[in-house]
Amino acid sequence: MERTLPFAVLISGRGSNMLALARAVTEGRIAGRMVTVISDQPGAAGLVEARRLGLAAEVVDAGPGTDRPALGQRLTEILKQHGAELVVLAGFMRILDSGFVQRWRGCLLNIHPSLLPAHRGLHTHRRVLAAGDPQHGCTVHFVTEELDAGPAIMQGRFAVGSGDTEESLSARVQQLEHIIYPRAVGWFAAGRLGWKDGAAMLDGRPLTTAVIEDVQ
Ligand code: GRF
Known about the structure:
The chain is an alpha/beta fold and about 220 residues long. Helices cover about 35% and strands about 25% of the residues. The chain has 6 helices and 11 strands. The protein has helices spanning about 15-25, 45-50, 70-80, 100-105, 125-130, 165-190, and strands spanning about 5-10, 30-40, 55-60, 85-90, 110, 135-140, 150-160, 195, 200, 205, 210-215. α1 links the parallel β1 and β2. α1 (about 15-25) runs parallel beside α6. The mean pLDDT is about 95. 5-O-phosphono-beta-D-ribofuranosylamine binds next to α1, β5 and α6.
């Protein structure tokens, strides 16, 4: 049988990207197996959804006393138990320590709801409206120690309309996330996407800019 990539998804909330990834696996668009879904939030809606799909779903103990290195070590233990070879952050609302990022370097992806490098951090839709940006979207990138600053892989992009609100932007971004994240994970699973000397590589060539998916 063809080898499939064991990967894990880390969430903190509703998990719609995790579900889009699970669907892509089922439909054969990702040659991978989602070996575990891990949340720092015991009440995360996405955990319920993951269990409903029959996926292994766990809570990492990240209570008030847990420092970042301890959280990173605990996460790595769980990931190793499940044999994960790729870690996919999908709305995981914790900053990961440098030990964790180094351990998983080149095998750690994130999706961010803006066209990076614009609007790193939180409240991206609000900031796009306040800045009057003509375009908005989302970015899949490799994770490095600097928050939301690792090499970009793929961006979904659209024009901001005069009637757009934070809510409409959030919905439009989410729809795009569900397209581009499975595609990028699919590339990784197929061995097309990788990491070399601090750069994202696609089909053996460094990605100098993200692959862009424009939608109306
Ligand atoms: C997404 O908008 C993603 O860009 C951000 O967190 C959100 C997660 O949403 N990092 P969901 O839990 O996948 O629905």
